[in-house]
Specification:
This protein is 51% helix and 10% strand. By secondary structure, it is of the alpha/beta class. A four-stranded parallel sheet has the order 2-1-3-4. The radius of gyration is 15 Å and the shape is globular.
């Protein structure tokens, strides 16, 4: 017999960068059974050590990147994700929100989830609220 927690968990989902960064603080029962990350998230993590303000912070970010690289095979941003980005961008525009450059990376991650048919797990659900019907956004 499966446990109640296992029954409530989705079989698979895409983790937003915010979740990967805070992964050690997220309860496992709040995540899908099988987790995936976008190649876009891996790119954000790869930029992290270069943006650190001091040696300790850069080392923490490098450690996080190496752990993520060892743990995840990234879901590629492919032709399907590129087409999904158009739908994601249009949904944001219809909602009256600007798809400014700072949000563009979040929307690329959302497009990856949309194309793969995966729910998106995030620590920042408000960043994705205009995407109802395109992406199932799950706050953790």
């Amino acid at each position: 017999m499966r446990s109640r927690v296992a029954e409530d968990r989705r079989p698979r989902g895409l983790l937003d960068t915010s979740v990967v960064i805070d992964l050690e603080h997220v309860a496992v029962d709040h995540l899908p059974v099988e987790v995936a990350v976008s190649a876009i998230t891996m790119a954000e993590l790869a930029a992290g050590p270069h943006a650190g303000t001091d040696a300790d912070e850069r080392a923490r970010r490098q450690d996080r990147l190496q752990r993520a690289e060892a743990a995840f095979d990234a879901v590629p941003f492919d032709d399907d994700a590129a087409r999904a980005y158009g739908r994601v961008h249009a949904a944001v525009a219809r909602a009256g929100r600007k798809a400014r450059r700072a949000r563009a990376v979040d929307l690329l991650v959302a497009a990856t989830a949309c194309a793969a048919g995966l729910p998106l797990y995030t620590r920042n659900p408000d960043d994705f609220r205009a995407l109802a019907g395109l992406v199932d956004v799950i706050a953790v």
